[in-house]
Amino acid sequence: MTSLDDIHADYELLEPDDRYRLLIDLGRDLEPMPDPLKTDATLVRGCSASVWLYPVPREDGTLHFLADSNAAITKGIVALVLLAVQDRTPKQIIDTDIDAALAPFDLKAQLSSNRTQGIPNMIALVRETAERLTA
């Protein structure tokens, strides 16, 4: 799996249109989320596009997230969020400053507010899931 640092190294060299394409490609690379998992219970609230997030606890104690969106760029943003936490333990996820990990991408300056308004809700859902599993 590519790291956020590697993706950012490419991202910062690109023009805005190419940055959109990079985000779209990241979204395309997400592991497919089965349609039966796309329910009201897995829907992330507050996103302008539909975003679903489903945690899969693994035997080794890590969390693997399946995610999808009906909007290509939003799906790429979801992929960035997941790169910060994918396949880590709930404690590692809680200890990760996801906002800081995404800060170098300066998404609020690059994308419309409609595209970025749901990011805090995605991050909150990831954190809540990790916290619930550590309790």
TrEMBL record:
Signal peptide: none
InterPro entries in the cross-refs: Fe-S_metab-assoc_dom
Domain Fe-S metabolism associated: 15-128
Protein family per UniProt: Belongs to the SufE family.
UniProt-recorded name of the protein: Fe-S metabolism protein SufE
Organism: Allosphingosinicella deserti
